[in-house]
Amino acid sequence: MTVMIDGRQTAAKIRSELAKKAEVLKNQGITPCLAVILVGDDPASQVYVRNKKRAAEKIGIETKDLHLSAQTAQSELLELIDSLNDDPSVHAILVQMPLPKHLDENEVINAISPKKDADGLHPKNLGHLFMNEPQALPCTPRGIMVLLAEYDIGVAGKNVVIIGRSNLVGRPLAAMMINVDATVTVAHSKTKNLPEIAKNADILVVATGRAEMVDQSYVKKGATVIDVGINRLPDNHLVGDVDQASVTGVAAYLTPVPGGVGPMTIAMLMQQTLELAEKSK
C-alpha cells in the first residue's frame, strides 16, 4: 500500500503556526513584508504571484506587488531591487521567474541582498548551504525536507537519488540531504542506465519537467518517491513527473500532483519571509 504524502495538510499546519509568529512580530512593531516583482504578463507567473499574495494575507504578511512591463530594461529592474534592498520596511524580495528573455536572471538574483533573499537562491546563501551553515534556503528543497520529517521518513544513511540538477531544486536539495547524512546521487539527462540507478534509491526525488516520465521500472519496492514536477496535459489535466498510477503499490510513500510538494513551496516562502523579518530586528 502506498501512503500519499499530503502537502496541503502539512502546509496548512505550518501556515497556522506562522500566523501566530507574525502576530508576535507585529506586537514588537515589525510588520513582515514581502516584495514581489513580476515582469511581463506570463499567465502562469500571474497565478503563482496571486497564490503567494493570498497565502501572505492569510498569515498576516504584508505584500508589496510590483508589476513591470515585459519591455522593462535590465537597468530599471536592478534599480528597483536596489531601492527595495535599502527599504527597511521590506524584509524579503522575490522576483518571479522566468523573466523575459532579454533580461539576465543571474544578474537579477545576484542583485538581491542575501539578507532579503526570499527564494534563497543568492550565490552567497547557496554557498552557506553547501558549507552546512544554512541561512536563507531555496523553498522547494526545504519544503521536501520538512515533508519527509513530518512523515517520519528518516534520511540519515539512506540512498537518495535526485533526478534533476537545477539550481532551484536538484543542486540545493543534494546539499540539504548531504547535510543530514544521506548518501546522494544526482542524475540528469546525460545519466546512463537511469532506471537502474533510480531503483537503488530509498528516497527518489524527480524534478525533470517531463510529464509522467518515471514509472515503476525506476522505483524500488518500498521506496519514498517525491514528485516535484507539475505539467499540464493537452486535456488541461495536471500531472507530475512521476506516473502516479504505475508507481502506486510499489512506493511506500508518494507525493501526489497536485497537492504534494507545491503547497510546501509557498509555505516555506512564507516561513522564510518571517525569519528574515525576525533577523532584521
Q: In words, what does this structure look like?
A:
The chain is of the alpha/beta class and 281 residues long. The protein folds into two domains: 29-113, Leucine Dehydrogenase, chain A, domain 1 (Rossmann fold); 139-262, 3-Layer(aba) Sandwich (Rossmann fold), CATH 3.40.50. Helices cover 41% and strands 16% of the residues. It contains ten helices and eleven strands. It has helices at residues 7-27, 43-59, 74-85, 105-111, 123-130, 139-150, 170-179, 194-198, 244-247, 261-279, and strands spanning 3-4, 33-39, 62-68, 92-95, 159-163, 183-187, 203-206, 224-227, 231-232, 238-239, 253-254. Strands 1-11-8-7-5-6 form a six-stranded parallel beta sheet. A three-stranded parallel beta sheet has the order 3-2-4, with helices on both faces. The protein has a two-stranded antiparallel sheet with strand order 9-10. Strand 9 (231-232) and strand 10 (238-239) form a beta hairpin. The radius of gyration is 19 Å and the shape is globular. The mean pLDDT is 97. Catalyzes the oxidation of 5,10-methylenetetrahydrofolate to 5,10-methenyltetrahydrofolate and then the hydrolysis of 5,10-methenyltetrahydrofolate to 10-formyltetrahydrofolate. Belongs to the tetrahydrofolate dehydrogenase/cyclohydrolase family.
